[in-house]
Design goal:
- The structure holds two protein chains of two kinds.
- By secondary structure, chain A is an alpha/beta fold.
- Chain A has five domains: about 60 residues, no CATH class; about 100 residues, 3-Layer(aba) Sandwich (Glutaredoxin), CATH 3.40.30; about 220 residues, 3-Layer(aba) Sandwich (Rossmann fold); about 70 residues, Roll (Ubiquitin-like (UB roll)), CATH 3.10.20.600; about 80 residues, Up-down Bundle (de novo design (two linked rop proteins)), CATH 1.20.1440.
- Chain A has 23 helices and 16 strands.
- In chain A, the strands form four sheets. A six-stranded mixed beta sheet of chain A has the order 5-13-12-16-14-15. A four-stranded mixed beta sheet of chain A has the order 2-1-3-4, with helices on one face. Chain A has a four-stranded parallel beta sheet with strand order 8-7-6-9, with helices on both faces.
- In chain A, strand 12 and strand 13 form a beta hairpin.
- In chain A, helix 8 packs across helix 14, helix 10 crosses helix 11 and helix 18 packs antiparallel against helix 19.
- Chain A is globular, with a radius of gyration of 25 Å.
- Chain A starts with a helix and ends in a 15-residue tail after the last helix.
- Chain B is an alpha/beta fold.
- Chain B has a single domain, classed as NADH:ubiquinone oxidoreductase-like, 20kDa subunit (Rossmann fold, 3-Layer(aba) Sandwich), CATH 3.40.50.
- In chain B, about 35% of the residues lie in helices and about 20% in strands.
- Chain B is elongated, with a radius of gyration of 18 Å.
- The N and C termini of chain B lie far apart (about 40 Å).
- The chains are: A alpha/beta, B alpha/beta.
- Chains A and B meet through helix 23 of A and helix 4, helix 6 and strand 6 of B.
């Protein structure tokens, strides 16, 4: 335990005893010990002069932080519906059998634990797992067998075949962003020639809207931050790409990191910010080294740091913060809380981050893709950018396409493209359902494939999951409901309880014990979640259920037993213990389901 | 003859399952308004009438959760006969105090009470067929039958029950204003 305290103390000192670095301190402490023992938490609380409960509260919030020992090899299967369709469940059973361990349990010797986790952003090359936080892709039976023997032999991860950790970009269609060769610094130079005001005017002309889902106008956000009182402004890049089925930011960070960082610098030029933070989701930890290397290159080239490109008064640098497995942190105010080293509980807005953001300072929070797009505006001008797309959705959109199609990957289209067009391009042969925008998005049925990807029609943060005739829309919705119940931050009752109840109803239907009454209750719960939740997680959690209940109602109805009401449990089986204890088997010792009313 | 006398009277049944009769006591706390109620209501099966089985009714009021096979039979009888079934009080809605045993194994419970307890000489779990068997867990009533309305409280006050019933009988969607809506 003294070792644990020493490791914890070192992590605290590396972060200069800064309480806002608590999450990073916990991540690093866990890296050193394997988990977060109580003594380490106590030591961290003492050194940071924080209440012990505050530290434990943060440690308990994030899925990838463990306050109990876990296996020396920690294997987490991505549990998104797409991974499941690729066979994760069978592979997980196989791995557990080979390692003689049950899901969610640590093996007796402490060597290994196997469990599931929310979508890891590898839908184009799944089934995927995280091994000690690092992504392993394209799992199959052979790979599972090999992994089992590597684990049994205790082979360090560094000696595992590098091929296992290969993550492909799978860029299938290039538009103005992905098709363009980018010279680092060129966009920045172009924007600086225009001056800070002139640059912001170009962004306004471009009509650029946020690519993270909400679609807020970028120029308005930047102007509000620039005009907010306070000299210590901040630019935050939201790379917490947790929406199931989304992986386009992963590809941008892997292949276009220069553009993303340059976009952040462009935002700093517009707003006068001096500090930049990139919040990287824990699942993309494997990108950390690469991103830090790019940052170092940009500093060396004078594109970051004091006096950028020789301009007096233009000082800006970027730090990377690592998340630890919490979908809700993709919501911008939860992300700010997390950056401040707290639990990822969304804040009440207003005030908005542009006036009261990171540590109460005026803050711009933009999605990875949005920031990358600003480099195009700097190079081509706002009008040229606005020439593609639709009137309210200018430019192009990256789609992360996965599921039942021949060519999963990242596609760049001008806004306004029809869903049918996209389906044809990605080689979807028998599409029945498309889930656009991830678990919280829109369920599109066949008769709607003429609809367009645009804020005016079907908005999306980028996920595009294809389901063919073999799939069951009910199971898709149920998978998403489980996801939301797991990811609810627990702060507000409608979401914490509502998502759990919804999960209970969906499971009841799945087990063949549903009745008409349950559909009415589900619809009531949908309304409650939508109207009473504290943030977008709760209010969008029922979306897949609402949509599938309207568009695929028979998928629900065929699961119902034709009764007014059906209990979720077997009443007669519930008497079994008492029958055994009393040795009775008379008619009075049984409950007949045929008498159910 | 007053108007209320010319209308057919509303038939109400009440019962207590795994409860303490506290909700029924609270029902009596309506005091003199009971006379008011009696003008528009007649009682079917209820501890107030001692009628043993329920006939067709307009409203069924259920106190208590479901802890044994007999509770299931009674609850089903009420559901079959009552147009509107109401869960009254914490135990009917959440299982309440009896559900405190849900985190214990029923077998261990019975052993502890009837076999191992100090002072028991010839222990044994009662096995008379007259006695209803215990379910392994105590359930709120809405997990066993469809329930139309819920009156929270432990117990709900006489005022709350009065407000609820007069709303229901008057054809208004029952609505408990803030002071009456409580969970303790």
């Amino acid at each position: 335990m003294q070792d644990a305290e020493r490791i914890a103390a070192q992590a605290v000192e590396r972060h200069r005893r800064e309480p806002s670095q608590l999450l990073q301190i916990l991540v690093e402490t866990q890296d050193g010990i394997g988990y977060l023992p109580a003594a380490a938490l106590t030591r961290i609380a003492d050194l940071l002069e924080l209440p012990r409960a505050r530290v434990e509260g943060v440690a308990g919030f994030y899925s990838f932080l463990y306050t109990e020992p876990v296996g020396r090899y920690r294997i987490l299967f991505s549990d998104n519906i797409i991974d499941r369709m690729l066979g994760t469940r069978g592979l997980m059973e196989s791995l557990c059998r080979r390692l003689e361990v049950s899901p969610g349990q640590v093996s007796p010797g402490g060597e290994v634990s196997v469990d599931v986790t929310s979508c890891t952003g590898m839908g184009d090359q799944g089934p995927a797992v995280l091994v000690n936080g690092l992504a392993v892709t394209r799992l199959d039976e052979a790979r599972v067998e090999r992994i089992a023997s590597l684990v049994r032999a205790g082979t360090p991860l560094a000696e595992w075949p590098a091929e296992y950790f290969r993550v492909d970009d799978n860029i299938r269609r290039r538009g103005s962003l992905l098709g363009d060769d980018f010279v680092p610094g060129a966009a920045l130079q172009a924007a600086m020639v225009r001056g800070r005001t002139g640059w912001l005017e170009e962004v306004r002309l471009s009509g650029l809207r946020g690519r993270g889902g909400a679609g807020f106008t970028t120029a308005v956000k930047w102007m509000a931050c620039r005009d907010a009182p306070g000299a210590d402004k901040v630019v935050v890049c939201n790379a917490d790409e947790g929406e199931p089925g989304t992986f386009k930011d992963r590809v941008l960070l892997a292949s276009q990191a220069e553009r993303v960082f340059e976009g952040m610098t462009l935002a700093a030029w517009a707003t006068g910010a001096r500090q930049g933070l990139l919040y990287l989701r824990g699942e993309y930890r494997y990108l950390l080294k690469h991103l830090r290397a790019v940052l170092a290159l940009r500093r060396a080239a004078g594109l970051l740091g004091p006096r950028i490109l020789g301009e007096a008064g233009f000082d800006f640098d970027i730090d990377i913060h690592l998340g630890a497995g919490a979908y809700v942190c993709g919501e911008e105010t939860a992300l700010l809380e997390s950056l401040e080293g707290k639990r990822g509980t969304p804040r009440i807005r207003p005030p908005f981050p542009v006036t009261h953001g990171y540590l109460g300072r005026p803050t711009v929070v933009n999605n990875v893709e949005t920031l990358a797009k600003t480099t195009l505006i700097a190079l081509q001008g706002g009008a040229a950018f606005a020439a593609t797309g639709t009137p309210q959705s200018t430019g192009t959109k990256l789609l992360s396409i996965s599921g039942d199609c021949a060519y999963p990957g990242v596609y760049e289209y001008p806004f306004g493209v029809t869903i049918a067009h996209v389906l044809e391009d990605c080689g979807a042969h028998d599409p029945q359902v498309v889930q656009v925008g991830g678990a919280s998005g829109v369920t599109i049925a066949g008769h709607e494939f003429h609809r367009r990807i645009a804020f005016e029609d079907v908005p999306t943060a980028g996920a595009f999951m294809v389901f063919d005739g073999r799939r069951d829309p009910f199971e898709m919705a149920r998978n998403f409901v489980h996801f939301f119940a797991h990811e609810s931050c627990g702060f507000c009752t409608p979401c914490r309880v509502g998502t759990a109840l919804l999960k209970g109803y969906m499971d009841k239907l799945a087990s063949g014990k549903g009745a008409k009454m349950d559909l009415a209750d589900i619809e009531w719960l949908d309304r409650l979640l939508k109207n009473a939740s504290h943030c977008g997680l709760g209010s969008s959690a029922p979306n897949p259920v609402i949509d599938t209940l309207i568009k695929f109602r028979p998928a629900y109805e065929r699961r119902l037993v034709s009764l007014d009401f059906k209990p979720a449990f077997d009443l007669d089986a519930a008497l079994e213990t008492a029958r055994r204890m009393t040795g009775r088997d008379d008619p009075g010792a049984h409950l007949d389901w045929r008498e159910e009313v | 003859m007053s108007d209320s006398m010319s209308l057919p009277r509303v038939r109400v049944a009440t019962t207590s399952l795994a409860g303490c009769f506290g909700c029924h006591m609270s029902f009596l706390d309506m005091d003199e308004r009971l006379l008011e109620l009696a003008k528009v209501v007649e009682f079917d099966r209820s501890p107030l009438t001692d009628i043993k089985h329920c006939g067709p009714c307009d409203i069924g009021l259920i106190e208590g959760g479901v802890c044994n096979a007999e509770n299931v039979h009674v609850l089903r009888e009420f559901r079959r006969n009552c147009k509107t079934l109401v869960a009254v009080g914490a135990c009917a809605i959440n299982g309440g105090l009896p559900a405190q045993r849900n985190h214990l194994d029923l077998g261990d419970c019975l052993q502890q009470v009837y076999v191992k307890r100090d002072g028991i000489e010839e222990g044994g779990v009662p096995d008379d067929p007259e006695l209803p068997l215990l379910l392994d867990r105590v359930h709120p009533i809405h997990e066993v039958v469809r329930v139309d309305y819920f009156i929270p409280g432990c117990p709900p006050s006489g005022d709350a029950i009065w407000k609820f019933l007069t709303d229901l009988i008057g054809g208004r969607t029952p609505r408990l204003p803030h002071p009456l809506l409580r969970f303790d």
